[in-house]
Amino acid sequence: VQLQACGGGLVQPGGSLRLSCATSGSSFSIGRMAWYRQAPGKQRELVAQITSGGSTNYADAVKGRCTISRDNARNTVYLQMNSLKPEDTAVYYCNAETTERRNLRWQVYDRWGQGTQVTVSS
Prior knowledge:
The protein is an all-beta fold. It contains no helices and eleven strands. Strands 2, 4, 5, 6, 9, 10 and 11 form a seven-stranded mixed beta sheet that branches. A hairpin with a 5-residue loop joins strand 5 (45-50) and strand 6.
């Protein structure tokens, strides 16, 4: 099972970006999905998460500016980011808790995407 993130880029302060992360593979299901970010010199931090049932949770720093959503049919999670600030500059990583069939057993994994750079600058 692999996660592929895209949608990052360079945007001016006040602008918007939409990140997406598609999960691919075989014999798996997805539970919680989330976006994390890591700025230079800082620890990775949770930005937003969404359960399989659609319940969401946001970091205080992005509340009111970001919306996480998911398309279960497409195994994809999105992060809509509005009113972006320079302090939002970071590499954004998608994360998913997957249940996968391996060696005739169902096992739980914590999967990560490769990261996509978001730079907010004028």
